[in-house]
Design goal:
single chain; globular; two-stranded antiparallel sheet; eight-stranded parallel beta barrel
Length: 304
């Protein structure tokens, strides 16, 4: 399995972030199409060639582009033309950078029949047609709903340009579904995975959670109703990594890029190093207990 990391999560200028990523020992990176520091969608062909060269010099493969549309995804017809355009441009960017996968949330899948579900499917058919024509994929990030709901939606959609980005942390935190079960259900569609950890404390309504994320009000939601979940450094949450990685291997999903995704924090760099150390140990079949995870994090924190 090749392990990558989202470079801009280090909250540094991109050139510096790439150097940090390389120092952690990862094989590659995922890049945001648009981040607080740079808008790669507006980059020139020469700038894109230089970015490819810089990654190659650092020994980094560019695995994918994150074209996150934010808000409510593709549920709102008025916003969909803009969101479709962003995904298409992100696909053009990915292909220019030497990869073909774009990831994004699409909004909580709506029940059938409903106008918002129809809006989601109409948008994804347009994106899927574009993807198929240019040789790209949109990989939908898991999290808002259980695997069976997304599988039914994708089967109904029947678009070869639409795939899945499996995020075990989102499944563990929000739906409470075992990500190994999610992997089994969605295996035919999975073409990219995120590596994230977290804990689920109480049941929550995905609609409420993602509406709060869209409006920036997740802290207020937790203040009013109690903390439902929390993202954790890899190895510190509820994801059973040895079992999960073994499941990916058994299903042959470990041939696809696996990218560490961790919220920006003052400990982003040591947490990344610890995550790579842990994942490498797990992939090698070594027993690594939680105490070891904490020791690695403390040790790497001194090297920050």
């Amino acid at each position: 399995m090749k392990i990558g990391i989202i470079a801009q999560r280090f909250a540094k200028p991109l050139d510096e972030a790439l150097a940090i990523a390389a120092s952690t020992g990862v094989d590659g990176v995922q890049l945001y199409a648009v981040s607080p520091r740079e808008n790669l969608l507006e980059s020139s062909p020469a700038e894109r060639r230089e970015l490819v060269r810089r990654c190659a010099d650092l020994g980094l493969e560019i695995f994918s582009v994150c074209g996150e549309v934010g808000g409510f995804g593709f549920r709102e017809p008025d916003a969909n033309p803009r969101n479709i355009d962003k995904i298409r441009r992100s696909m053009d960017l990915a292909l220019a950078l030497g990869c073909n996968i774009v990831t994004s949330h699409i909004g909580v899948i709506q029940p059938a029949p409903s106008p918002k579900r129809a809006a989601q499917q109409d948008s994804l058919r347009k994106i899927g047609d574009y993807a198929a024509a240019c040789g790209a994929l949109l990989a939908i990030e898991t999290g808002p709903e259980r695997g069976a709901v997304l599988r039914e939606f994708l089967d109904e959609l029947a678009q070869p340009g639409i795939a899945v980005n499996l995020d075990p942390g989102n499944m563990a935190m929000i739906t409470g579904e075992d990500p190994c079960v999610t992997a089994e259900i969605l295996a035919p569609y999975i073409r990219h995975t995120h590596l994230k950890d977290g804990c689920h404390y109480r049941d929550c309504e995905p609609e409420q959670v993602y509406a709060a994320f869209a409006s920036g009000g997740i802290k207020q939601l937790f203040a009013e109703h109690g903390t439902a979940f929390m993202e954790k450094p890899i190895g510190s949450g509820s994801v059973d990594w040895p079992r999960y990685l073994a499941t990916l291997h058994r299903l042959r999903l470990d041939r696809f890029p696996a990218v560490i995704e961790r919220e920006v924090s003052p400990r982003s760099i040591p947490e990344a190093r610890s995550a790579v150390s842990l994942l490498t140990s797990f992939l090698a079949g070594k027993e690594v207990r939680q105490e070891k995870a904490n020791t690695l994090l403390s040790f790497d924190d001194k090297r920050k």
